[in-house]
Write a structure and sequence with these properties.
This protein is an alpha/beta fold and about 325 residues long. The chain folds into 2 domains: about 100 residues, Enolase-like, domain 1; about 200 residues, TIM Barrel. The protein contains 11 helices and 14 strands. Strand 1 and strand 2 form a beta hairpin. The longest helix has 18 residues.
Length: about 325
C-alpha cells in the first residue's frame, strides 16, 4: 500500500461543558470528556466520537492510547470488518468503528444507512434527562421540562419513591422512564417497582447491580425492566433471559455501530425490546446511534441538549424531536 493509499488516523481528547451539572447515583460531573477519532485518505475524512466511562475502567488517556496504537494495523490494511478481532469492545473501538463507517460512506458518496443496508432513520422523540437530586429539585426541573413527551428520571436508592411521585406531579402528561443506575437492592426492589407502576412509569433501567440481578427472575415485574450495565454486546444477551424485558444498546458499550446493529438484531430475535441510549456527548456521538432508532421502543439521545454548547454542524433538535444527521456531521 502506497502512502497515498494508507489511511491517516488522528485522535484527540475534547472537553464540552455541561449546562449546570449531570448527576446520577455514582456522582456528578460538569463536563463531557470525549475522544474523537478521525480517519482520512484521498481527500475524504470520517469521524467518530466516544465517551470513556470510568465505571468500565476507561479513561480518556487510555482510550486515546488505544486509538493511536491502531495506526499501524490500519496502515497494514485493517478495516472495520476486522476491527472486532483487533480491539476489545468499548469506547475506543466505537470511535474508530464510527470513523471508518463515516469515511467509507463519504468515499462511496452514500449515506451510512445505505452503505450498511439499514433503514433510513427519521425524526424521532428522544427522552430528556432529569438529574438525580432532592424530590423538590427534581420536581422543579421536571416542571420546566413538562412540555417534553418523555422524561428520564435519574434515581439513587433511598428516597426514590418520593422522587418519582414529585416528578409525576410536576409533569403529569409526560411519559416517565427511570434509571436507577444499579442503586436498588433486593429487599427494596418490589416496593420501588410498585411505586413506579403506581406513578405510571413505563420503563425502569438497571435497578440492580450488574451480576447481582438474579432477583429480577423471581419477582413479578409490573413495569418493563431494561438492562443497561448488565448488557454490553451480543455475548451478554443470553444472560438477560427471564430477568429483563428490554435492553439499552449504547455504542460505547457495544464497541461501535457495527456491533450495536448486530446486537439489536439478536435482541429482537429473543424477544427483547430495544432502547437506544448514549453517554453525555456531542452530536457526533449521537449521530451513528440514529441508525438504531428504527428498531427502538425508547430513544435516549439527549446528550447535546444537556451541554452548554454543541458542535456547529450538530444534530437538529426541535424540542424533543431529533432529526437524522446531515452528511457534514457524520454518515
Amino acid at each position: 500500500m502506497t502512502s497515498s493509499q494508507t489511511p491517516n488516523l488522528a485522535a484527540r481528547i475534547e472537553r464540552w461543558p455541561i449546562a449546570g451539572s449531570f448527576t446520577i447515583s455514582r456522582g456528578a460531573k460538569t463536563e463531557a470528556v470525549t475522544v474523537v477519532a478521525e480517519v482520512s485518505r484521498g481527500g475524504f475524512s470520517g469521524r467518530g466520537e466516544c465517551v470513556p466511562y470510568l465505571h468500565y475502567n476507561e479513561t480518556p488517556e487510555a482510550t486515546l492510547a488505544a486509538l493511536t496504537a491502531m495506526r499501524e494495523p490500519l496502515a497494514r490494511g485493517l478495516d472495520r470488518r476486522g476491527l472486532p478481532a483487533a480491539m476489545p469492545p468499548g469506547a475506543a473501538r466505537n470511535a474508530l468503528d464510527c470513523a471508518l463507517i463515516d469515511f467509507e460512506a463519504k468515499a462511496a458518496g452514500m449515506r451510512a444507512w445505505d452503505l450498511l443496508g439499514r433503514p433510513a432513520p427519521g425524526a424521532c422523540t428522544t427522552a430528556y434527562t432529569i438529574s438525580l437530586g432532592t424530590p423538590e429539585a427534581m420536581a422543579e426541573a421536571a416542571a420546566k421540562a413538562a412540555h417534553r413527551p418523555v422524561l428520564k428520571i435519574k434515581l439513587g436508592g433511598d428516597g426514590d419513591g418520593a422522587r418519582i411521585l414529585a416528578v409525576r406531579r410536576a409533569a403529569p402528561q409526560s411519559e416517565l422512564i427511570v434509571d436507577a443506575n444499579e442503586a436498588w437492592h433486593h429487599d427494596d426492589l418490589a416496593a420501588h417497582l410498585a411505586a413506579c407502576a403506581d406513578a405510571g412509569v413505563t420503563l425502569v433501567e438497571q435497578p440492580l447491580p450488574a451480576g447481582k440481578d438474579e432477583a429480577l427472575a423471581r419477582i413479578e415485574r409490573p413495569v418493563t425492566v431494561c438492562a443497561d450495565e448488565s448488557a454490553h454486546d451480543r455475548a451478554s444477551l443470553e444472560g438477560l433471559r427471564g430477568r429483563y424485558d428490554a435492553v439499552n444498546i449504547k455504542l460505547d458499550k457495544a464497541g461501535g455501530l457495527t456491533e450495536a446493529l448486530a446486537m439489536a438484531d439478536a435482541a429482537r430475535a429473543i424477544g427483547l425490546e430495544i432502547m437506544v441510549g448514549s453517554m453525555v456527548g456531542t452530536s457526533l456521538a449521537m449521530a451513528p446511534a440514529m441508525l438504531l432508532t428504527p428498531y427502538a421502543r425508547i430513544v435516549d439521545l439527549d446528550g447535546p441538549l444537556l451541554l452548554a454548547r454543541d458542535r456547529h454542524d450538530g444534530l437538529r433538535y426541535d424540542g424533543s424531536l431529533v432529526y437524522p444527521p446531515e452528511a457534514a456531521l457524520w454518515g
